[in-house]
Specification:
Elements (H helix, E strand, L loop, with lengths): L1 H19 L5 H19 L4 H16 L12 H11 L4 H19 L1 H5 L6 E4 L6 H12 L3 E5 L7 H4 L12 H9 L5 E5 L9 H12 L7 E2 L6 E2 L5 E6 L7 H4 L3 E4 L5 H20 L6 E3 L4 H5 L9 H21 L4 E3 L4 H4 L4
Parallel strand pairs: 1-6, 1-7, 2-3, 3-6, 8-9
Antiparallel strand pairs: 4-5
Length: 353
C-alpha cells in the first residue's frame, strides 16, 4: 500500500509540474491548484483511488484545452479562389459567397480596431444529400490555413454530447465542442456543425439551446462545458453549419445564420465532376492508370442516371468505385491490358437495379 501511495504522490508531483508550466487562465489555475491540494489531503488520509482518477482526468482535459493558441489566417483571395475551383465544379453562386466571405475577413484584419474584435458571419448550407455541403467547410479551412473540427449531429441523442457531463459523474468527459478544439490544438478552428437538422427529435430542443449559445457572439466568448465547468472562449472560431432542410431547426438558431441554398447538380455537371474529380482518385487508389480504365462517352449518361434524377454525387461515386474494382479484378485475373466500358458490356461493371 505504501508503494502505491508513493506512486500516486509522484504522479501528483508530475501533475503539479505540468500545471506550473501551462498557459491557463488565473482563475482556472487556482481551481486546479485547489483540486490538487484536496487530492493530497485525501492521499494523506489513505482515501485516494476514485478521487485521484477524477482529478487527474479533469486536469488532463484542462491542460489540453488551447486557451490561447491560434493559427494565423491566410487571407489570399487568389489562393482561396484556386482552392475552391480545385475542389468544386459549378456552384458559382456558392463559391462567390465564400470569396466574399474571405474578402471581408481580409478587410477587417487590415483595420486595427476591427481586428481586435473578430467577427465572421455564420453560414448555413442547405441542400440535398451529396450536393457537397461538407466539402465547402474543408475548402474554407484549407484556404484560411485553419484547422477543421467536424461535429456530426446525425442521431445525436442529447445536448450533453455537445456540452459534456458533470465531472462528478463517474466516466464523464467533455462534450464534442471542447474535444474538437482540443484535437485541433487551437481555439480558432473552422467548426463544422454537420447536419444540424438530424439530431434526435426528443433532444432537439436542448440541442438547439446549446447551438444558440455557440452561435451567438454575445455568448460564445464564454462557452461553458459541463465537465470543464469554466468559460472557454470560442469567439475566434469560424462556425459553418449544414442541413438537408430547415424544418427541425429552431427559429432562434436560424436567426443567427445566413442560409445558402445548395443547388442540385445537372447531369452535365455530374459527368464533369466524375471525370475530373472522382474517377482519377479512384483509379489512383486502385493502382490503375487512366489508360487502363476507359468509359465511352455514350455510357456516361447511364452511369450518372441509373434510376432517374439524383441531386447529389454520392451514388455516382459508389457506382464508379464498384466499376473500378471489377475492372481491377478482370485485369489481374485475365491479364487484360485495359478495360473499356461500352453500352454492350456495361452490365458487367454497373449495378443492376
Amino acid at each position: 500500500m505504501t508503494d502505491y501511495k508513493e506512486i500516486l504522490e509522484k504522479e501528483i508531483d508530475e501533475l503539479k509540474s505540468k500545471v506550473s508550466v501551462s498557459t491557463l487562465p488565473e482563475e482556472m489555475r487556482r481551481k486546479v491548484d485547489k483540486d490538487i491540494v484536496s487530492l493530497e489531503r485525501s492521499i494523506a488520509l489513505g482515501s485516494y483511488d476514485e478521487k485521484y482518477e477524477k482529478v487527474s482526468k479533469y486536469i488532463y482535459w484542462v491542460l489540453k484545452i488551447p486557451w490561447e493558441a491560434e493559427t494565423k489566417d491566410t487571407l489570399d483571395i487568389v489562393r482561396t479562389k484556386e482552392i475552391f475551383e480545385k475542389h468544386h465544379y459549378g456552384m458559382l453562386d456558392v463559391k462567390n459567397r465564400f470569396l466574399e466571405y474571405v474578402s471581408v475577413l481580409k478587410l477587417r484584419s487590415q483595420n486595427e480596431e476591427m481586428a481586435k474584435d473578430f467577427r465572421a458571419p455564420i453560414l448555413l448550407l442547405v441542400g440535398l444529400v451529396g450536393t457537397g455541403k461538407t466539402t465547402f467547410a474543408t475548402s474554407l479551412s484549407e484556404a484560411l490555413g485553419r484547422e477543421l473540427v467536424r461535429i456530426p449531429f446525425g442521431g445525436m441523442g442529447s445536448a450533453e454530447e455537445l456540452r459534456g457531463n458533470s465531472r462528478l459523474i463517474l466516466g464523464s468527459e467533455p462534450g464534442r465542442v471542447i474535444k474538437g478544439i482540443c484535437e485541433a490544438g487551437v481555439r480558432n478552428p473552422v467548426i463544422l456543425l454537420d447536419e444540424i437538422d438530424r439530431g434526435s427529435t426528443e433532444a432537439n430542443k436542448d440541442i438547439m439551446g446549446v447551438l444558440v449559445e455557440l452561435l451567438d457572439p454575445k455568448q460564445n466568448h464564454a462557452f461553458r462545458d459541463n465537465f470543464i465547468d469554466y468559460p472557454v472562449d470560442l469567439s475566434h472560431a469560424i462556425f459553418l453549419a449544414t442541413a438537408n432542410n430547415t424544418t427541425a431547426i429552431a427559429t432562434a438558431v436560424l436567426d443567427r445564420m445566413e442560409k445558402i441554398s445548395m443547388p442540385s447538380y445537372t447531369d452535365h455537371e455530374k459527368i464533369v465532376i466524375a471525370q475530373k474529380y472522382i474517377l482519377p482518385g479512384l483509379l489512383k487508389d486502385a493502382g490503375l492508370t487512366p489508360q487502363q480504365f476507359i468509359i465511352e462517352d455514350d455510357v456516361w449518361g447511364v452511369v450518372t442516371r441509373p434510376l432517374g434524377f439524383d441531386a447529389g454525387i454520392r451514388t455516382l461515386g459508389r457506382t464508379l468505385e464498384g466499376a473500378v474494382r471489377k475492372a481491377a479484378r478482370i485485369i489481374v485475373e485475365k491479364g487484360y491490358p485495359e478495360i473499356i466500358i461500352t453500352l454492350e458490356n456495361k452490365n458487367i461493371f454497373l449495378p443492376q437495379y
